């Protein structure tokens, strides 16, 4: 039943559960009754996470209750790793419980170099948004790392824990994409433990960056904002060094803060953090990707597009998008994210034709990413109801694959 409801219908259901009428919901989010009516009937899409998060907060529900996640698809490829969730959950339970290594039957301890190569290969799948293929290998990588971290000694401890953090990050990203936010939290918990065991400020910053990402997915904007502030305060004393990894994590944390502030509709703060990130990006390689942050100049500009979108400034979305050389970032996930944001911005500007073109570009690059994103799904649902573009048949096929009707 839930899978068949639209986002607007889920909003209406949560509102009625509180015993509210549309006027009460409208007043609580500082909108008109007409706006609420259009949201609930699907005549107006929920096209920003900032708005979706605000509605979830006032209705006292989690964001996933309104989005209907997790979504399931017709083919194993587009199902984006759902089949791996039970194995991933068990591996993370073993990774986070005391003595978890003793529960894993293994005759030989995995070698550090071999596991390093496997983690690097998995990271390429993550950046290409090939989450089904990632799900095939990640649970076993995590189990092997549980054993390795348990027996590691001396200089191998920080190396093993760094691999555990990187693998747990991939588990967090996969879990949040698929709507299993509780599993994402387990992954981040293990990242934080890895940082403490390694006694590394770099790993600590990487884990906190991921914790901010988790909270942004969950709509916990105040928590994400405050974590970014604390992490930046702790990183600042180290910024006098020439360490490019620290500089990249500093810049990536500013991007997290910019998104959090934009979803809280504070433009000065959001733009201030964007400016800091741009400055930091000038000191890292063009293809920078420290700890899977993809922190570099192109990604800073992709974030500027997202910030304008969340702030509700569609003209800025398009003007900033024109300046992004998105082909220069080596991440299908980031490229796809850019095109989704651009598509939503085009639709907010009343331009359905370029919106349809952009969302189809996003889907062509990373379908497993697009088809699990609530905002992309809402946009496709909106586009299929209009014939003011030349991609009607393609959009309807995409909507059908998303089970949108």
TrEMBL record:
Organism's domain of life? Bacteria
Ranges where the HTH cro/C1-type domain occurs: 11-66
User: Origin organism of this chain?
Assistant: Streptomyces populi
Q: Give the protein name, as stated in the record.
A: HTH cro/C1-type domain-containing protein
Entries under Pfam families matching the protein: HTH_31
Could you cite one Gene Ontology molecular function of this protein? DNA binding
């Amino acid at each position: 039943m839930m899978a068949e409801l639209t986002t607007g219908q889920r909003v209406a259901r949560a509102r009625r559960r509180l015993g509210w009428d549309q006027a009460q919901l409208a007043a609580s989010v500082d909108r008109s009754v007409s706006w609420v009516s259009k949201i609930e009937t699907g005549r107006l899409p929920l096209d920003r996470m900032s708005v979706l998060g605000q509605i979830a907060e006032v209705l006292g529900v989690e964001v996933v209750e309104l989005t209907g996640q997790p979504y399931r698809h017709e083919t194993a490829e587009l199902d984006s790793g759902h089949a791996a969730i039970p194995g991933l959950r068990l591996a993370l339970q073993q990774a986070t419980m005391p003595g978890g290594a003793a529960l894993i039957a293994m005759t030989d301890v995995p070698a550090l170099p071999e596991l390093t190569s496997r983690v690097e290969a998995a990271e390429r799948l993550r950046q290409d948004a090939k989450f089904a293929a990632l799900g095939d290998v990640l649970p076993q990588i995590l189990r092997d790392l549980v054993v390795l971290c348990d027996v590691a000694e001396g200089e191998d401890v920080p190396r093993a824990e760094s691999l555990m953090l990187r693998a747990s990050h991939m588990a967090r990203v996969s879990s949040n994409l698929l709507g299993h936010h509780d599993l994402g939290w387990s992954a981040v918990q293990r990242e934080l433990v890895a940082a403490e065991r390694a006694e590394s400020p770099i790993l600590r910053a990487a884990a906190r960056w991921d914790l901010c990402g988790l909270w942004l997915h969950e709509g916990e904007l105040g928590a994400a904002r405050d974590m970014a502030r604390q992490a930046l305060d702790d990183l600042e004393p180290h910024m006098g060094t020439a360490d490019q990894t620290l500089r990249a994590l500093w810049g990536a944390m500013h991007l997290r803060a910019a998104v959090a502030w934009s979803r809280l509709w504070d433009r000065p703060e959001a733009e201030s953090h964007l400016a800091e990130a741009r400055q930091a990006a000038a000191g890292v390689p063009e293809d920078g990707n420290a700890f899977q942050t993809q922190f570099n100049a192109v990604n800073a500009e992709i974030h500027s597009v997202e910030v304008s979108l969340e702030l509700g400034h569609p003209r800025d979305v398009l003007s900033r998008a024109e300046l992004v050389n998105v082909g220069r970032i080596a991440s299908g996930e980031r490229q796809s994210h850019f095109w989704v944001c651009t598509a939503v911005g085009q639709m907010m500007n009343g331009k359905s034709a370029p919106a349809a073109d952009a969302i189809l570009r996003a889907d062509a690059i990373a379908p497993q990413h697009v088809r699990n994103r609530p905002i992309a799904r809402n946009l496709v649902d909106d586009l299929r109801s209009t014939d003011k573009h030349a991609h009607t048949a393609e959009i309807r096929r995409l909507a059908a694959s998303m089970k949108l009707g």
